[in-house]
Amino acid sequence: MKVVCLPGDGIGPEVMEAAMRVLEPLPLELETQPFGGEAIAKFGTPLPAATLEACKQADAVLLGAIGLPKYDGAALRPEQGLIELRGELDVYANLRPSSDGDKVDLLIVRELVGGIYYGRRGRTEDGVVFDTCEYTEPQIERIARRGFELARKRSKRLTCVDKANVLATSRLWRQVVERVGSDYSDVEVQYMLVDNAAMQIARAAEQFDVIVTENMFGDILSDLAAAVTGGLGLAASASLADGGPGLFEPVHGSAPDIAGKGIANPTAMLRSVAMMLEHAFGEETAARELEHAVEAAIHEAPTTDLGGTAGTREFTDKVVEALGRED
User: Fold this and answer.
1) Is the Cβ–Cβ distance between 91 and 68 less than 8 Å?
2) Are 64 and 82 a contacting pair, CB within 8 Å?
3) Topology of 98-233 in CATH?
4) pLDDT at residue 233 above 90?
């Protein structure tokens, strides 16, 4: 099994090193490719053709982080490579779990390759700038089914989040989710407007089980859910296709202000590795073992952002120790 590793920018290479330490003992081939700002500097594009081809041929893709201040406002940005990669791999189902270890156990299922990020955009001759939110019924149906299947394995509750009182795309979302839901009579379904959903997540996130929503709403709500359960530094994600490699990445940014200092918290990356083990390779036992090892490290060797003193290396040492390994 091959994993293509895309370290990226900022703290990306540092948290990727932690991931590779955890993965090295496993029967996996790890291949590193340039991506993001690093790739722009060397190849003039954030997603070189060789990197894209390697990703397509892999069994899973693991991403560190992308983005650098020098590209802010530039015509060519590292983030464009990520949008392109997601589209090329057709990883339409973005899974963003959020848990506080107590009451909250929420999974946001975000449609990832449609909507306003992929719709038509431009500027008219009279100066009007537009970005178009576009969805088709098949795009909505496949993410809805993914959400229902996941809800069926959890607490059998699904919330469809939209803005159906204003947007035509959201009204289509409701129609399709209602139709798909008829095949899952064992799953309780509710519909919630996105502004109310944001308020409810901030106020009482424990009321949710699985949330299914479109691309931009999912982008915003998943960051909010992460913030109320510990912060982006702890949040992992998996982006899955129907066949083909999945893309697994921490939610946090590249944090260039702390890059190279050895203090980055690798929790989100290691949790993303656990999601990769489960969803790409079916290794649920290994995934749970890694999750428990990360939890042990959070309590025994917290990094500075968690109020401790451990650096990236020390935290990873504790994870490796908890896994019962030596390196």
Assistant:
1) no
2) no
3) Isopropylmalate Dehydrogenase (3.40.718)
4) no
Beta strands 129-131; 121-123: pairing state: antiparallel
Q: Where in the chain is the domain with CATH 3.40.718.10?
A: 1-91+241-327, 98-233
Among candidates 306, 286, 289, 287, which has minimal Cα distance to 298?
Answer: 306
- Asked if 163 is an active-site residue, the reply is yes
Residues in the chain: 327
Contacts for 196 with CB less than 8 Å, ≥ 6 apart:
none
Across 228-238, average pLDDT: 92
Active site residue 117: yes
Active site residue 223: yes
Q: Does domain 1-91+241-327 have CATH number 3.90.740.10?
A: no
Q: Which residues of 264-294 are buried (b: 16+ CB within 10 A; e: fewer)?
A: bbbbbbbbbbbbbbbbbbebeebbebbbebb
Token couple for 16: 């990727």
Catalytic residue of the set 59, 90, 223, 317 = 223
Q: pLDDT digits over 194-207, tens only? A: 999 999 999 999 99
Query: Tens of pLDDT along 256-295?
Result: 999 999 999 999 999 999 999 999 999 999 999 999 999 9
pLDDT tens sequence across 135-152 = 999 999 999 999 999 999
Query: Which listed residue (117, 156, 191, 317) is catalytic?
Result: 117
Q: Catalytic residue at 219?
A: yes
Instruction: Please report which helix (H) or strand (E) contains residue 191, including its range.
Output: strand 188-193
pTM: 0.94
